[in-house]
Amino acid sequence: MLRQESKKFLMIVLGILLISVFGLSIAYAILNVTLNISGSAKVTSADWDISIDNVSIVTDGSAEVLTPPTIDGTEISDFSVSLTKPGDAVFITFYVTNNGSVDAKYVNNTLHTIDYGNYKDYILTNFRIGLTYPEDTDLLVGESRMFMYEISWESYASTLPGNNSPFEISNLGATILYEQK
Description:
Elements: H1 2-31, E1 50-60, E2 64-67, E3 70-72, E4 75-83, E5 89-98, E6 104-111, H2 120-126, E7 127-132, E8 144-153, E9 167-180
Antiparallel strand pairs: 1-5, 2-4, 3-4, 4-9, 5-8, 6-9, 7-8
């Protein structure tokens, strides 16, 4: 009987050894598999080119542009105007164009800090200074959107206070911000 128990024990040990060797063989095979990936890809660089172009200036009444605007990318800046009487106005129309290869999403615009001279309160009350633009200002590749910067003396306003010299408003400008869509 002892012999039969020994034989049974040896068979169990031999079975465990065979299972272990088989498991180690599989583990070794899994760890030694070489993964080869082949193929090719071409990366083309994108071109970001959003800029202001086609600037036109229209004046009404006695209004004058003392310094024309400077254009740099999506910034129109450093221009000044002179308005003499109610109803005078300057309209600067320009287009923001996407000449790049990436669609652009409109983020916001910022008007520059304006030098009002000695009549800031009067100007803030009786003048319209601002930027008008379309509701949909996102730009797909090749598209343009029209913007208009307006400086106008409301026609209902009283005449010039003080010495009746023209209002000269300087440091006018705006920056228009876009980001990748």
